[in-house]
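Researcher: Batch entry, complex prediction.
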Amino acid sequence: MESIGKKAIMYALADGDLEKQIKVSAEEEGFKLIKGKVGSMNTEKIFAAVETAAQREGLICGDRYRDNHALYHAILDAFVGICRGQLGLGDMLRTVGLIFTVVKGPRNVESREDGEWLAVVLYGTIGAPVKGYEHETIGLGLNHL
Amino acid sequence: MESIGKKAIMYALADGDLEKQIKVSAEEEGFKLIKGKVGSMNTEKIFAAVETAAQREGLICGDRYRDNHALYHAILDAFVGICRGQLGLGDMLRTVGLIFTVVKGPRNVESREDGEWLAVVLYGTIGAPVKGYEHETIGLGLNHL
Amino acid sequence: MESIGKKAIMYALADGDLEKQIKVSAEEEGFKLIKGKVGSMNTEKIFAAVETAAQREGLICGDRYRDNHALYHAILDAFVGICRGQLGLGDMLRTVGLIFTVVKGPRNVESREDGEWLAVVLYGTIGAPVKGYEHETIGLGLNHL
Amino acid sequence: MESIGKKAIMYALADGDLEKQIKVSAEEEGFKLIKGKVGSMNTEKIFAAVETAAQREGLICGDRYRDNHALYHAILDAFVGICRGQLGLGDMLRTVGLIFTVVKGPRNVESREDGEWLAVVLYGTIGAPVKGYEHETIGLGLNHL
Amino acid sequence: MESIGKKAIMYALADGDLEKQIKVSAEEEGFKLIKGKVGSMNTEKIFAAVETAAQREGLICGDRYRDNHALYHAILDAFVGICRGQLGLGDMLRTVGLIFTVVKGPRNVESREDGEWLAVVLYGTIGAPVKGYEHETIGLGLNHL
Amino acid sequence: MESIGKKAIMYALADGDLEKQIKVSAEEEGFKLIKGKVGSMNTEKIFAAVETAAQREGLICGDRYRDNHALYHAILDAFVGICRGQLGLGDMLRTVGLIFTVVKGPRNVESREDGEWLAVVLYGTIGAPVKGYEHETIGLGLNHL
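Model: Structure tokens for the complex:
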């Protein structure tokens, strides 16, 4: 599990001891990881939740637009995976309940000379605004910082 | 890890003992799982590889079009996640190296009354046709059988 | 006119005696048909109108998520046909006035062994929010139940 | 049935006496109608078949680029309806068998002062390259000439 | 600089004397040009600003739907260029500050026999709703009148 | 004309003395500019032409994948602007004749602290594979290096 995307996916899916272990082990290798939750019918809340968390936890430098730009497109790519073709949530009468993770570090542990990258994972459920009328969905966005 | 999508993702990412363990444990719960590899610049080869494996291993019944239809759209949804917005591989001068998994079973172990579903995961790398010039990508498609 | 899609299109376009005749004849062959109207600049109202009518009239079982899932994607496919590429109504300063039909039954009368399918047709006008500044549009979505 | 889109759809779906009757009646109202068939896994063949027929039958003037431009976008809009979101045929391992119609005339018989329009309908089946593994699909494109 | 698209782009990018010179010179060749500004997170405001200006300045005839139709699709095409794939502004937590130009005339000065065309350019910045967190973007839509 | 996108657009549209003047003046401000031509019905040739020129002229470092990644997405964004919604050239029976420019430097001359960016412009004609049956199109992609 040396690559940044796999770390972001595993960290999103894990809980309890495994979750902690993934974090500790990745941090020892020089990665930074954050995790949060967001549920909404409003697309902009997904973007805002991930952006805010990544800035607050220092994964991107809020003072540099290029960091914001890199993160934005990683979120957008992950969001496209969540929507699978037709972008939209509430306007298409569907809602999501998502865990998100953001990981910052090398693309993988053997390619540190290629600089820092960001991986964003959105994982959870998408479906009708009725409890249980939903199925799983995942999206992964990667970008160079 | 009771849901079909999570099983499909974990089975795609795991190897060695963990891979076997995921399969055995899921089969005991009534799921069927397959795993394969496909690398190509031709989109149709991705579709063909997953369809052929799923039919050969009996996850769908080749004699029923509705099963084919369910699988096709699950693959297409996963493929959209891989491409993140603009569908295409070789025509956009990029290539993929993918592991695929297909899981058949209930949406999750508590909702068996909702019938059988299919989950398709494509996980691997996407990038330029130059070794190492690539990053990770994942797509998940779910459909009712 | 033995196929489910053709029945849904013809039922959407017909009125008066022909409309009744299509319904009676299709019901004798084992199809269920409903028809309604919806006009809006809000995409979610199109989805809601079709979903509500199909549940109320018993074309799908409201208690089974898989039925909802099948219907949702049939509506979405029909809606893509209506929008022809760029999804959106009011946000793109356009509005629709639509007749919708939903038909449940075999894909066609000779393939009953392939189980039940849903066909959703949206037919009407799309255009500027100015009376008469509009042209026709149609979308058809099919899915296995 | 006074509108150009409805005429194009009905003419595509009809056969035998009804087909002739639609044509004769529409021609008396000042419309021009053509009908043809095309089946392919190659998207460009769909475009070529409709363009060639419309030029040969004089629905557009081959010497005027603006007529070609109008027709091209009407075909493209109809093709998007056929594909429902993700453009592609053989590259996505699917094929179509289509009837096409092109109608030239006023948007509807009461709005002749708004000049000439084109309606293109593609109607038929889309599915796997296996006989019978397919379902119906329709697309309608309208454009001003 | 004999073509309509180039005139629309140059007029959007120019200011001061050059801007005036482009306008005067193009008008002598029989083109009509307008220019305006619009900034918003709401997509419909972009459409409305361009439509209103083009009608008010007489580039299209507000009484003819076909003129509206031609303009609408030119704006939509330009807007797609601005968004580069995933349509949306505020719902994707981004905003635009745009100059727009609309030019009416022949496709280029040597092809007057091909009738009148419209070119719409949107040029400006797209980015986060934070001052300076943005980069440039351009879109050009052309349509026959 | 202090911003990178405007420089890339102007350099694409200019010829003769103005072209030289734009280049010289931009180089004095610390930008690097290249310009080339590509005409094709094959999408991959557009990508290849721009990638090859940018590497050969040293705008990106061929040894660093992150530079390739930045350029690739800038080309893709520009290509989306060219196609305006439905990606494809020959498969949709259309062809392009394009000038391309790539500019490397600060986003604009006042924001040098935000590091280096790439701007890719594709400008030319898109249309039927018939001489003169075409109209102008432009696309601009920006990315941080």
